[in-house]
Amino acid sequence: MRNGFTLIEMLVAVAILAIGLTSALFLFSAGLRNQAEAIIAQRAAGLAETVIAETAAKLTTSADPKKLAKKHAIHPDFPNMRYSVHLLPLDDFEEEVLVAVDVEWMWRGRAVRRRFSTVVLRRSEHPLLRRRQSH
Q1: For residue 46, what are the contacts with CB-CB under 8 A and spacing of at least 6?
Q2: What is the tens place of the pLDDT at every residue in 20-30?
Q3: What residues have CB less than 8 Å from 83, skipping those under 6 apart?
Q4: 20 to 30 A Cα–Cα from 45, which one of 21, 28, 117, 119?
Protein backbone atom coordinates (compact mmCIF):
# COMPACT_ATOMS: atom_id res chain seq x y z
CA MET A 1 0.00 0.00 0.00
CA ARG A 2 1.34 3.40 -1.01
CA ASN A 3 1.04 6.57 1.01
CA GLY A 4 0.13 9.81 -0.78
CA PHE A 5 -2.40 11.07 -3.27
CA THR A 6 -3.16 9.85 -6.75
CA LEU A 7 -3.21 12.20 -9.72
CA ILE A 8 -7.03 12.05 -9.87
CA GLU A 9 -7.34 13.04 -6.20
CA MET A 10 -4.99 15.98 -6.77
CA LEU A 11 -6.98 17.16 -9.81
CA VAL A 12 -10.24 16.99 -7.86
CA ALA A 13 -8.69 18.91 -4.93
CA VAL A 14 -7.31 21.62 -7.25
CA ALA A 15 -10.68 21.91 -9.04
CA ILE A 16 -12.52 22.36 -5.71
CA LEU A 17 -9.96 24.96 -4.61
CA ALA A 18 -10.29 26.84 -7.93
CA ILE A 19 -14.08 26.92 -7.66
CA GLY A 20 -13.89 28.18 -4.08
CA LEU A 21 -11.36 30.93 -4.90
CA THR A 22 -13.32 32.03 -7.95
CA SER A 23 -16.49 32.32 -5.88
CA ALA A 24 -14.69 34.29 -3.17
CA LEU A 25 -13.18 36.71 -5.71
CA PHE A 26 -16.59 37.20 -7.32
CA LEU A 27 -18.12 38.03 -3.92
CA PHE A 28 -15.34 40.52 -3.14
CA SER A 29 -15.72 42.28 -6.49
CA ALA A 30 -19.52 42.43 -6.10
CA GLY A 31 -19.07 43.88 -2.61
CA LEU A 32 -16.68 46.56 -3.88
CA ARG A 33 -19.07 47.45 -6.70
CA ASN A 34 -21.98 47.77 -4.26
CA GLN A 35 -19.86 49.89 -1.93
CA ALA A 36 -18.93 52.26 -4.76
CA GLU A 37 -22.58 52.56 -5.79
CA ALA A 38 -23.59 53.28 -2.19
CA ILE A 39 -20.97 56.02 -1.90
CA ILE A 40 -22.27 57.72 -5.05
CA ALA A 41 -25.88 57.44 -3.81
CA GLN A 42 -24.77 58.99 -0.50
CA ARG A 43 -23.17 61.89 -2.39
CA ALA A 44 -26.43 62.35 -4.32
CA ALA A 45 -28.33 62.53 -1.04
CA GLY A 46 -25.80 65.09 0.20
CA LEU A 47 -26.34 67.19 -2.93
CA ALA A 48 -30.12 67.01 -2.49
CA GLU A 49 -29.83 68.01 1.17
CA THR A 50 -27.63 70.98 0.24
CA VAL A 51 -29.97 72.14 -2.54
CA ILE A 52 -33.05 71.77 -0.32
CA ALA A 53 -31.38 73.81 2.43
CA GLU A 54 -30.37 76.54 -0.05
CA THR A 55 -33.90 76.60 -1.51
CA ALA A 56 -35.51 76.72 1.95
CA ALA A 57 -33.30 79.70 2.86
CA LYS A 58 -34.55 81.60 -0.20
CA LEU A 59 -38.18 80.52 0.20
CA THR A 60 -39.70 83.51 1.93
CA THR A 61 -43.30 84.69 1.81
CA SER A 62 -42.41 87.18 -0.94
CA ALA A 63 -40.30 84.78 -3.03
CA ASP A 64 -41.67 83.47 -6.31
CA PRO A 65 -41.37 79.65 -6.29
CA LYS A 66 -41.14 79.58 -10.09
CA LYS A 67 -37.91 81.60 -9.93
CA LEU A 68 -36.41 79.16 -7.43
CA ALA A 69 -37.06 76.14 -9.67
CA LYS A 70 -34.05 74.92 -11.65
CA LYS A 71 -33.44 72.50 -14.49
CA HIS A 72 -30.24 70.52 -15.05
CA ALA A 73 -28.10 72.71 -12.79
CA ILE A 74 -24.64 71.82 -11.51
CA HIS A 75 -23.62 72.58 -7.93
CA PRO A 76 -19.96 73.63 -7.53
CA ASP A 77 -19.42 71.13 -4.70
CA PHE A 78 -20.84 68.21 -6.73
CA PRO A 79 -19.47 68.69 -10.28
CA ASN A 80 -20.28 65.17 -11.55
CA MET A 81 -23.99 65.42 -10.83
CA ARG A 82 -26.85 67.44 -12.28
CA TYR A 83 -29.96 68.42 -10.37
CA SER A 84 -33.39 69.90 -10.97
CA VAL A 85 -35.55 71.61 -8.34
CA HIS A 86 -39.35 71.46 -8.42
CA LEU A 87 -41.59 73.41 -6.03
CA LEU A 88 -45.26 72.66 -5.47
CA PRO A 89 -47.46 74.62 -3.02
CA LEU A 90 -49.44 72.23 -0.82
CA ASP A 91 -52.07 74.52 0.69
CA ASP A 92 -54.27 77.43 -0.41
CA PHE A 93 -52.06 80.00 1.31
CA GLU A 94 -48.90 78.58 -0.30
CA GLU A 95 -47.15 78.43 3.07
CA GLU A 96 -46.29 74.75 2.78
CA VAL A 97 -44.23 73.93 -0.28
CA LEU A 98 -43.11 70.52 -1.48
CA VAL A 99 -39.49 70.82 -2.60
CA ALA A 100 -38.39 67.94 -4.83
CA VAL A 101 -34.84 67.57 -6.09
CA ASP A 102 -34.02 65.20 -8.93
CA VAL A 103 -30.34 64.23 -8.94
CA GLU A 104 -28.77 62.63 -12.03
CA TRP A 105 -25.36 61.06 -12.55
CA MET A 106 -23.66 58.52 -14.80
CA TRP A 107 -22.91 55.07 -13.37
CA ARG A 108 -21.30 52.33 -15.44
CA GLY A 109 -22.33 53.93 -18.71
CA ARG A 110 -25.96 54.57 -17.83
CA ALA A 111 -27.79 57.56 -16.38
CA VAL A 112 -29.09 57.14 -12.83
CA ARG A 113 -31.78 59.42 -11.41
CA ARG A 114 -33.03 59.69 -7.84
CA ARG A 115 -35.70 62.00 -6.39
CA PHE A 116 -35.45 63.48 -2.92
CA SER A 117 -38.28 65.56 -1.49
CA THR A 118 -39.46 67.26 1.67
CA VAL A 119 -42.04 69.80 2.80
CA VAL A 120 -40.72 73.28 3.61
CA LEU A 121 -42.59 76.10 5.32
CA ARG A 122 -42.13 79.54 3.84
CA ARG A 123 -40.51 81.83 6.33
CA SER A 124 -41.81 85.33 6.82
CA GLU A 125 -39.46 88.21 6.29
CA HIS A 126 -38.73 90.61 9.07
CA PRO A 127 -39.97 94.12 8.11
CA LEU A 128 -36.60 95.72 8.92
CA LEU A 129 -34.77 93.30 6.67
CA ARG A 130 -37.20 93.99 3.84
CA ARG A 131 -36.60 97.75 4.08
CA ARG A 132 -32.85 97.34 4.22
CA GLN A 133 -32.82 95.24 1.05
CA SER A 134 -34.94 97.72 -0.89
CA HIS A 135 -32.49 100.64 -0.35
Answers
A1: 78
A2: 999 999 999 99
A3: 47, 48, 51, 70, 72, 73, 74, 75, 101, 102, 103, 104
A4: 28
